[in-house]
Amino acid sequence: MAITKQDILAAADALDAEGVKPTLAAVRKKLGGGSFSTISEAMREWKADHAAGATPLREPAPAAVVERSADLAAELWATCMELANARLAGEREALEAAREEMEASQREAAELADQMAGEIEALQAQVSSLQTRADAAEAEADEVRGELAGALERAGRAEARAAEIEKRADDAKTELGRVHELLSAERQQHAAELQRQTAALQAAQEAARAQGEELAALRAQVAAVQGERDQARAEVSSLRAEVATLTARAEAEREQHQENRKRAAEEAHRCAEKLTKATAERDEARSEVAHLRGQLEALSGRPKAGGKS
Fold this sequence. Notes:
309 residues, disordered C terminus, 2 domains
């Protein structure tokens, strides 16, 4: 709320009533603040009012002097001179009082100026302290922003690495599925080939049995048909060789099938190891991403220094 002239005059009256000289500094202290120019202007009016009240009354010349002016000119002149001297003395006293009042006002102004200078110095010191704290807070904010940028960059790299590992894991899963499909198809193919060879072997065995039966019949007629017997023996020998060849081929196919199964199992084992390693790397990267995100959230919620005055 602004201080009015009435407030200043009332404060000066209160100080005068308390027996305290109402100087500018005393009035300002009584009011708890205020502008020096406003207080000085109001105090000039207050002092002028009090000085007017203290000015002695001056009486006009007595009537007897006027009536006796002709006869008593010399006495009138002397009286006028005395009155003039008395008035001159009064003016000198008033002038001296005005000079003393001016000097007192100057002292009050100097005192108020010293008081305001001290307040200004205190305010400047406070502003300097606040500026230092603001600079420190800005420096700390820059450091926090740098840490935040580094954390964001590390988080981005970790997320990219995690995405790459997940892609590698997906590729490994796809490759493992393809190997399983190839292994299943190869198993089916070998099973079909084994069934075909088994059927061929059974057919050969059936043919061999049929040829044996025919050979038995030919032996019964060996005496009559020697040439047919030799021919039958040759055919039997040929059939036996064919059976041996088919048997050896079937054995070789079984060995090849077992070797293929062994290679497929080894390939599946290697793919499983790759998948396990890729899964471990992915879990490690996800853990690192979670850790970096925790640091990022901690840095984002960190209070700035110098926030309280």
